[in-house]
């Protein structure tokens, strides 16, 4: 349950102000059909984070435990730094309009998530917890918690959030997780 809850919380907070959330705003403004957009986000995230979770659960089988500890610890600290860098939406992320609302959302979200912070976080969380299902479901719920309101409420909601503070909190969580893993405290804390 820890893997699910931590994955949900981290990704929900990390997604605020992320380029895929900006994409959700853009799709909502363009199509004004929230149901197929939200369902498209769900499908794209399950596919994308499913691949990331599989990679994350496979990595520990390749690396010695001591090396994995360093890779994960440093990876979480790098994520802490990366989360502080604001995202910008690429115009190419929503160019698939001929696929309809649902198809456009699936393709655009899947591609926008490739190499994105939340995808990399999914890999790291799956490697840390060795729980594919809990991490992928958690990160997917986190994506929906951040993006469904973006689709439903639009820019009014986004402008009222203290995005820079939210990013700082998420960065602090990633940094703490990195230090805990590097210091070997993660097994003592149940992480």
Automatic annotation (TrEMBL):
The similarity annotation says: Belongs to the GDT1 family.
Lineage per the UniProt record? Bacteria, Pseudomonadati, Pseudomonadota, Gammaproteobacteria, Moraxellales
- State where the protein is found: Membrane
Return the InterPro entries for the record.
Answer: GDT1-like (IPR001727)
Name one matching Pfam family: GDT1
Mode of membrane association:
Multi-pass membrane protein
Q: What keywords tag this UniProt record?
A: Membrane, Transmembrane, Transmembrane helix
Q: Source species, please? A: Paraperlucidibaca baekdonensis
* Gene Ontology MF terms in the entry: metal ion transmembrane transporter activity
Q: Name one GO cellular component term.
A: membrane
Superkingdom to which the source organism belongs: Bacteria
Transmembrane feature ranges: 38-59, 66-84, 96-112, 132-153, 165-185
Q: What is the protein name for this chain?
A: GDT1 family protein
Q: Does the keyword rRNA-binding apply?
A: no
């Amino acid at each position: 349950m820890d893997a699910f809850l931590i994955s949900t919380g981290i990704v929900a907070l990390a997604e605020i102000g992320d380029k895929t959330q900006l994409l959700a705003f853009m799709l909502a403004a363009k199509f004004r059909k929230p149901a197929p957009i939200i369902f498209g986000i769900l499908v794209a995230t399950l596919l994308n984070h499913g691949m990331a979770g599989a990679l994350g659960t496979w990595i520990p089988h390749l690396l010695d435990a001591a090396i994995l500890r360093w890779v994960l610890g440093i990876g979480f600290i790098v994520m802490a730094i990366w989360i502080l860098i604001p995202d910008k939406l690429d115009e190419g992320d929503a160019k698939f309009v001929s696929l309809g609302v649902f198809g456009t959302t699936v393709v655009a979200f899947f591609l926008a998530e490739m190499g994105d912070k939340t995808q990399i976080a999914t890999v790291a969380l799956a490697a840390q917890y060795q729980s594919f299902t809990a991490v992928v479901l958690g990160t997917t719920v986190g994506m929906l918690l951040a993006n469904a309101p973006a689709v439903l409420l639009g820019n009014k909601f986004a402008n009222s959030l203290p995005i820079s503070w939210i990013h700082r909190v998420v960065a602090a969580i990633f940094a703490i997780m990195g230090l805990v893993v590097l210091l070997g405290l993660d097994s003592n804390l149940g992480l």
